[in-house]
Amino acid sequence: MSTLPGLVDTALDLAAAGVPVLPLRRGKVPFGNCPACTGNACGGRPNMKTPGPCSCPGVCHAWAAATTDPAVITSPPWAAAWRQAVCVGYHPGGAGLTVVDLDDADAIAWARTALPATRTVPTARGQHWIYRGAMTSRNAVRPGVDIKSRMSYARWLGHGTGSTAALPDAVRALAVKEQSTARRAPQSLTAPLRGHGGECPHRTPAYLERGIAMAVQRITEARSAVHATVYRTFLAVLSTHGRCGCLTDTHVNRLFTAAQAKGESPRHCTDAWANALATLGL
To answer: Is 276 helix (H, G, I), strand (E, B) or coil?
Structure first.
């Protein structure tokens, strides 16, 4: 398969403007881990707040692999990835931007009344509203609305129209609301598991780490029924660790990263997590 016309040129233009880019494969998702990094064996970037310490020269760490270096973009192993890519992705937070991803007409109508006007880019079903300023990325902050900034990627769909406005407090507030509702498990809880006295055994770092590592491995090694595997894995993790308050955002991000490396979308990850929470009554 040859590189789509203009794909690398677009990536180089964005990189020259200071926008970190990465190739996206079929399904508009990042490429999966290379053999050396499978199951986070490299100990690296998917679980870090900033890229590192993995020195993999490839594109297998999603948003954390995004780069503005033209030599990396045009050299192996990136060159091989571009030949399989279907579009250009970018890391909004790395460019000091935030994308409010509006999935449908209802979400667009809400944004027009709730958010200040800014640069707008049409998508297949909705719009991207792009603001100047970076923040924490959150999915499903309200129906049909995702926020893509730090530790996330967006598909490049053109420059759009309008002027880029400063990131408003209204968007930041959406992320705070989503963190307190849709993803309750990472909150710091103090109640021990039922049936246990004294200190919760899950607070032993090795115990929790082993459980998360096994969950990541289960997702990574799935060869079929990935949707079901992700849901069952989330359910297993939450049934063991969801009531004692040991899970943190770092643990959840590791699970979500593993799922997205298998082709799951951020929305699917969020839905599977929410469904698992509901099933367990958490």
So the answer is: helix
3-class secondary-structure state, position 93? helix
Does any domain span residue 242? yes
Q: Which residues pair with 119 in a beta bridge?
A: 130
For 131-147, write each residue's pLDDT tens digit: 999 998 888 888 999 99
Asked if 220 and 262 count as a contact pair (C-beta separation under 8 A), the reply is yes
For residues 75 and 67, the answer to whether their CB atoms sit within 8 Å is no
Q: 117 is written with which tokens?
A: 């006007």
Are 102 and 177 members of one domain? yes
The answer, as to whether pTM is greater than 0.70, is no
231 Cβ neighbours under 8 A, 6+ residues apart: 272, 275, 276
What range does the domain containing 243 cover?
201-280
Residue 216 and residue 137 share a domain: no
| Tens-digit pLDDT profile for residues 2-13 | 455 589 999 999
